[in-house]
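Supplementary Text 2. Reproducibility record for the structural model of the 201-residue chain.

All settings were left at their defaults, and a single model was retained for analysis rather than an ensemble. We include the record here because the model underlies the residue-level annotations in Supplementary Table 4.
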Amino acid sequence: MPVERRLLGLDRRTLLPAALVAMLFAVAGWILPAINDQMTVDDPIRAGDVVQIGPDVQFVPVTGANLVSGLRQGQPDVAGYPRAAAVTYSGIVFQVTTDTFRGTPVQLLEQIRKTDDGLRIPGDAGFHVTSDPVTITNGAGQHGAAAHLDGTNAVGLVAAFVFGETGVEIQAIGPQAAPGAVSAQVAAMLQSVRPVEGSGS
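Retained model, structure tokens:
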């Protein structure tokens, strides 16, 4: 390697990508949980609240969760509803993202996995999909696919539904050990993801 391309014996070209990955891992694994532990619930979810994502997808957060991004159904802004929403609950971040997709939930999950793998540097300690997809069913009886995510300091799942031509990605990430009641509440939020009635999806 030419001397002008080295810094402390390392290839300068690899330093920036490695630093970015390390920073993202620190944010996901340490900083976000620490912030969550100290964060007051400033936008609490109340019974009956429904969060809408884009024009045609919704979910029901657990009562007491904190809405950190997204809008409640019936309260769009001038641009409508954003394509992503997230709540936190007992140290778990639950995020729903939608976009146009033509395919099956398993194909969407595979696309998510490939995109995730393509963004990481081999050998890093970020989140990895560590299981084969399994079929899940929402409360409306529609089937999706889900797989486990594992990281050094947090675990979770990634799930996918396809409603019409709308692909839905759900990620739930939290500490290694979560009380069973919290896991049950997260499962309930996952099952509540469905098309908005009358949206045509």
